[in-house]
Amino acid sequence: MTFELTILALAGLLHIGQFAFASYRANVDVGTEYSLGPRDHMPTQQMRPATARLMRAYDNSAVMLPLFGLAMMLIAVTDQSTMVTKSAAAIYLAARVLYTPAYALGWQPWRSVIWIVALACCALLYFAALF
Q: What is the pTM of this model?
């Protein structure tokens, strides 16, 4: 497996971990009755602000992962792995690792800076695939 695809696999595991952690925290906050039920109504208990931020960080990961995944697949299929693509992939993963605590802890403006770094890495990977 290429370095970039290894990073993609790690990003997928990170995504699963984010989902598990955010879901656990949400379950603690709103209770198992709501979590295990059909969710036909809003929960009677509110999530703590940090938990709500964890859920939004996960949602952001769900948006970013396909962008990154497609870029990684383009690099792998076209056999265009270089130090630039490897670096962009590693920096993307590092940024995504930092993004969740940055969001959960309300780091301003660092959360946005970290997000921009990850997005820029995705853009760089697409450019690398094209040229």
A: 0.92
Name the fold adopted by 3-130. Four Helix Bundle (Hemerythrin (Met), subunit A) (1.20.120)
> For helices 3-30 and 83-104, what crossing angle results, to 10°?
10
* Tokens read off for 85: 């693509």
Yes or no: say if 95 and 114 are a contact pair by the CB < 8 Å rule. Answer: yes
In the chain the beta strands, taken as DSSP E runs, fall at none
How confident is the model over 11-36, as a mean pLDDT? 92
Any idea where the domains of the chain sit in the sequence? 3-130
CB-CB contact of 47 with 76 (8 Å): no
Residue-wise pLDDT for 66-87, tens only, equals 999 999 999 999 999 999 999 9
Do residues 8 and 68 touch, judged by C-beta distance below 8 A?
yes
